[in-house]
Amino acid sequence: MAAVVDVTGPIRVVIVDDDPLVRGMLTMMLDGADGIVVVGEAADGGAAITAVDRHMPDVVLMDIRMPGVNGITATERLRRRHRPPEIIVLTTFDTDEHVVRALRAGASGFLLKDTPPERISQAVRAVAAGNPMLSPGVTRRLMQRVASGAESYEQARNRLALLTPRERDVVLAIAQGRANAEIATELLMSVTTVKAHVSHILTKLDLDNRTQIALLAHDARLT
Fold it and tell me: For residues 153 and 218, is the Cβ–Cβ distance under 8 A?
């Protein structure tokens, strides 16, 4: 399981997109926005890895379709590191079938490229705090699009059998798009206890983040 990003100062961001106009627009929107600083840019996945090595960001905004090393491959490589940055995929959801693959690779969520600036900055802060940026409606749409690479029903069920009944309740709530505070209220426990359950679930299932928990729950047909 990847280590959770521990942000004690400004949230450091690297922007990865092969379109210099998109990079410039995102930099202009984010740099200096409420505790966010853009520390670097890259034009493809290979350059993204170099930029991460150089700037040590907390969050990477990653395009999917780029020449050379694409965003999915770069995401996989970055998330295999000991202390990886959180990654938000940038995409046009309705046409890019690679989104689910990126989430399985360890991305913490995704944004449409026409997302309002305030929503983008909210997403950066959310994933830096360890929370995926996926609304319940978006989660349901993603679940419907899972096709290639999905675990079999039996494999997913067998993995979830490693969990306690209470942990399975938390998994279901995560799959339904609930935030920690909502899970705490629904299951009558403290937010601290919810966070402890999530950490145990990630460790037991050898997963990186809550999005992968939700995908596994879908494979097991819990949602």
Answer: no
